[in-house]
Amino acid sequence: MQSYIEKVNKGQDLTFTEMAVAAERLFQEETPLEQIEALLVGLAAKGETATELAALAQVMKQNALTLQETPQRYIDNCGTGGDGIGSFNISTTTAFVLAAGGVPVAKHGNRKISSLAGSADTLEELGIHADFTTAELKTLLDREGLAFIFAPKVHPKLKRIGQVRQKIGKPTIFNLVGPLANPVELTAQFTGINRKTFIRDYAEVMQLLGRERGVVVYGAGGLDEASLAGENRLAILENGDIREMIVTPESVGLKRYPLTAIQGGDGKENADIVRQVLQNKESAYLDTVLLNAGIGFFTAGKVQTIEEGIHVARKVIASGAAYEKLQAIIAYSKAHIKELA
């Protein structure tokens, strides 16, 4: 491990094989925490490459528990996090809309690392716990077309690394790799990242990992979601090709809002925002979810354009279907807790 640490500290990139070996050592109990920290900090300082990211994603998936899910055209809309902006849980809220609109969602998530509330924190405030077994997650996917996959439950070897990430307190390669290490076989993926120059590289990693369709977005203002604050840069993987485009709120029929309009808080505050959005309360929060759900429906191939996807999302929320999906997942969670009691 020390040789890899020294190499990245010199600003040199690791090859696929080197990163794969280093990744295996990251997951080994005998690897000192200090070495894990040094490698993560060194990679972040150097700037992680698509090759390093693909190698880590492959090793993580090989070390993950499997859900043995029923084959469907699953999508994940998990962002990388780490943008430091403090927005509400946009992708978590959006997942209910996508699932209610007929797109099966297997959403990866975690607790707060570099934000006030990660998806798991907010979901627990809503009444959806993070303690599902892989069999129960499979049932949720089959029954509701939606499961929130708590990363530590399916990546048991991440526990020690999580301690290191908490200590570092800043984005590492594990923020970037999180969405790519979903144990469910994904057909499509919509991911927000907070590295403007990396969107095409990230789409290339999706392609290497076998995604048929993918959208990577760098949100206006540095958000790791699509934003209403201005220009969103997208890389779109479609039919084996990658193209880039700019999407503004105005170009898809939405109003522009500053990032301050979508500030979140702790898990309780964010849970309140989720409920309000899914109950169709007009706000910048709602419009932000409409934009991201529109891109999600487009990513899944359900619609031909993002604007058409926004119309679908608006109908799904207005009909009450998205809020009903939330209630169904809560009911399943409560029933599981009752069985454990």
SSE arrangement:
Layout (H helix, E strand, L loop, with lengths): L1 H8 L6 H11 L6 H14 L3 H13 L12 E2 L13 H11 L4 E5 L9 H8 L7 H11 L1 E5 H4 L4 H10 L4 H5 L10 E5 L6 H10 L4 E6 L13 E7 L2 E7 L19 H12 L5 H16 L6 H13 L2 H20 L1
Parallel strand pairs: 1-4, 2-3, 4-5
Antiparallel strand pairs: 5-6, 6-7
Helix pairs in contact: 1-3, 2-4, 3-9, 4-11, 5-13, 5-15, 6-12, 13-14
What does this structure look like?
- There is one protein chain.
- This protein has 341 residues and is an alpha/beta fold.
- 49% of the residues lie in helices and 11% in strands.
- The chain contains 15 helices and seven strands.
- A hairpin with a 2-residue loop joins strand 6 and strand 7 (241-247).
- Helix 2 (16-26) packs across helix 4 and helix 5 (90-100) packs across helix 13.
- It is globular.
Number of helices: 15
Name the shape in a single word.
Answer: globular
Question: How confident is the prediction overall: mean pLDDT?
Answer: 92
How are the strands of the biggest sheet laid out side by side? 1-4-5-6-7
For the record, give the distance between the C-alpha atoms at the N and C termini, rounded to a whole number: 45 Å
Order of helices and strands: HHHHEHEHHEHHHEHEEEHHHH
Helical residue percent band: 40-55%
- Computed CA radius of gyration, to the nearest angstrom: 19 Å
Number of strands: 7
| Share of β-strand residues | 5-15%
Q: Low-confidence spans: pLDDT under 50, at least 5 residues?
A: none
Q: Specify the structural class.
A: alpha/beta
The major beta sheet can be summarized as: 5 strands, mixed
